[in-house]
Amino acid sequence: MPDMPATTVFTIGELSRRTGLPVKTIRFYSDEGLLPPTQRTGAGYRLYDAHALARLELVRTLRELGIGLPDVSRALARETTVRDLATSHVDALDEQIRRLRLRRAVLRAVLKRDSELEEVKLMNRIAQMPDEERRRLVEEFWAEMMQGLDVDPEFYARMQSAKPDLPDDPTPEQLEAWIEFAELVQDPGFRQSIRTMSERHSATREAGEYEQPTKAQQENWAAWMTDARSALDAGHAPDSPAGQALADAIATASARPDQDPADPAVRYKMADGIAVGADPRAERYWQLLATINGWPAIPSRQEEVQFLLAALRAS
Questions:
Q1: Exposure winner among 75, 143, 236, 307, fewest CB in 10 A?
Q2: Is residue 315 within 8 Å of 247, Cβ to Cβ?
Q3: Do 22 and 114 fall into the same domain?
Q4: Is 2 within the bounds of a domain?
Q5: Claim to verify: residue 104 and residue 250 sit in the same structural domain
Q6: Which pLDDT score, from 0 to 100, does residue 273 have?
Q7: What is the number of domains present in the chain?
Q8: What CATH number did the domain enclosing 48 receive?
Q9: Per the database record, which ranges form the HTH merR-type domain (predicted)?
Q10: In what side-by-side order are the strands of the sheet with 9-10?
């Protein structure tokens, strides 16, 4: 804007032509005290000088950035700084953007599931859960799974420590995973499945049958899954030599000193014990948690597990 003599004054119409703002808007700003007239004509018409023109440009800029009239007034009165206004409004916009992204992700999940109204309400409530409530949901789930039972505290502490940590700016996939995860841990069937697993775990601990098989499974599980995958890829059946070799390895590693690893009854019992913890929903629990937290993806091992169980039972 070229320099203008300090004595230059403008009518509201001239301000409108120079700034592109409607006369009605400029008059409103003036009435609100944001743009007091420099002087008035004898007929009472408002006149504005170059300083008022610059002030009007600042008001327009702040309003275009979404800053409300009270904050604009405070800035013009130097009760706050533009920097402070920008800081607070950036924070507010970040929160608004976060909420809009959550809504978009919920709506995408609604489209994918073709959800009914009640499910939409539930999904929206789940999506809006604060971090503290998300973590408490998991803590309460595992507390119920071990209540009144003699369980390995170290193992269950690890289970409880893995919390869903949804980022402030989640991807639609992360939010969908969180919705499914929250539904899963509240599902009565899943809760009963994990509780049954915990009860069996507790019973074997009390009987002194727990430590050795569990340690063997922890140490050898990855290798057994690899062998099962190789057998499946080669087209072998569970009762094939490859399947039986795997069953032999599992039974030998898992049998207690008082058990015969070749005994079919012992192997069948081992298979039952493994099957209790092989619920596909338990695997899905960890897959969803990995997606929510941005961990490496966890591939499904259900085919390998079923092959392993069938091999043990076929021997």
A1: 143
A2: yes
A3: no
A4: no
A5: no
A6: 85
A7: 3
A8: 1.10.1660.10
A9: 9-78
A10: 9-10, 46-49, 39-40
Q: In which element (H, E) is residue 58 found?
A: helix 50-64
CA distances from 212 to 185, 217, 219, 238 (A): 29, 9, 11, 25
167 domain-assigned: yes
Q: What is the pLDDT of residues 16-56, one digit of tens each?
A: 999 999 999 999 999 999 999 999 998 989 999 999 999 99
Structural domain boundaries enclosing 51: 9-80
The runs of H, that is alpha helices, within 147-279 are 153-161, 172-185, 188-206, 211-233, 241-254, 264-276
Residues 243 and 308 occupy one common structural domain: yes
Could you tell me the two tokens for 278? Answer: 């092989």
CA atoms within 13 A on the CB side of 215: 7
Q: Rg for the chain (alpha carbons), in Å?
A: 34
The position carrying tokens 């098989």 is 213
The predicted model scores a pTM of 0.66
Determine the Cα–Cα distance for residues 56 and 19; give it in Å rounded to an integer. Answer: 8
Question: Measured between alpha carbons, how far is 273 from 275 in angstroms, rounded to an integer?
Answer: 5
In a domain, 3, yes or no: no
